[in-house]
Amino acid sequence: MTFTQLEIFVLVAQYQSFTLAAQHLNITQSAVSHALKSLEKHWAVRLMIREQNQIELTQIGQQLLLHAKEVLNTAQMMQQQVKASHGVQQGTLRIGSFGASASIHLLPELLKAYRIRYPHIEIFIEEGTDLEVSQWIQERQIDVGFAVLPRPHLITYPLLQDIFIALIPKSYPISQQIALNIQDLQDYPFIMTKAGSQTHVEQLLRQYHVQPKIQYQMSQLLTILNMVNLQEGIAIVADMSMSSELLRLHPNVVKRPLIPNTQRQIGLAVKDEKSISPATKAFIQLAQEMFYFKQ
Domain of life of the organism in this record (predicted)? Predict the structure, then answer.
């Protein structure tokens, strides 16, 4: 068993494709197939079932995949710590991000500062929903991810507070109010976000027993803004995702806070403190310097 075989196993499981795994590693597809067969022979188990161009992990394959990720993560952390001991800040950093709040408001500024401070660290970004990012952390697919707190099963580091706001067409009478009572949503067409905030918006509606008239369900913030601009309904989004520049491009949209006020805390999360690599630790420290300690 080699680290290369484990890496190939993890990549094939992640991409569900021999071809994509081979492209990622810049090797032939036959080399990927040979490595997996060697690993199966070494363990005397079948890791994957391949039928009609689809790949499915066996039960033992799913169990061993978790351990393979742990081994590779530990090996990567050891390499980074050795390099750090020689004063060389090198390695890789895999970051998970969700929605416009993290991906637009937080991540670009943070990445720019991080690259200036640690130019030799290779960075990979995975984007998904808040729940997906947390799952990736659990599975060690990423080293650190943005998360809406609390996250009881993860180690978390708070960064800042955000609130939810309503995007309202100017033609709607309630756009003249200074805030939107969440109960009033039931009287108007509603546009549900399918992006990173969906789970939290749905939880908010359940909390106040609101059953809105869902007209559309959309995942792109710009699409939601355009629909509100066309007077098609009200939407609830995170305040950090809504810049003044975006609003200026949609003159028929106003944003209003909700009554009651709805806050959420955004931070970074890792699986456990023992396995934090130097590159990950540096990223968390920089994020806290830039956001948390300035609140």
Answer: Bacteria
Are 166 and 236 contacting, i.e. CB atoms less than 8 angstroms apart?
A: yes
10 vs 292: CA distance, rounded Å: 35
Same domain, 146 and 209: no
Give dist(CA 185, CA 251) in Å, integer: 21
- Beta strands 91-98; 121-128: pairing state: parallel
pLDDT digits (tens, 9 = 90+) for 271-285: 988 888 888 999 999
Q: Give the pLDDT confidence of 116-167 residue by residue, as tens digits.
A: 999 989 899 998 888 889 999 998 889 999 998 999 999 999 999 888 999 9
> What's the pTM value of the predicted model, to 2 decimals?
0.69
- Give burial (CB, 10 Å; 0-12/13-18/19+) of 263: exposed
CA distance 279 to 287: 12
Tokens of 22: 């081979």
Q: Are residues 154 and 246 in the same domain?
A: no
Name 253's bridge partners. Answer: 169
Distance CA 292, CA 126 (A): 23
Range of the domain at 136: 82-159+265-294
84 against 60, higher pLDDT: 60
Total number of domains in the chain: 3
**Whole-Å CA distances, 71 to 78, 194, 217:** 11, 35, 41
CATH number of the domain at 12, please. Answer: 1.10.10.10
Residue 43 tokens, joined: 């363990």
Partnered with residue 205 across adjacent β-strands are none
Tell the residue number behind the tokens 């351990």, with chain if given: 67
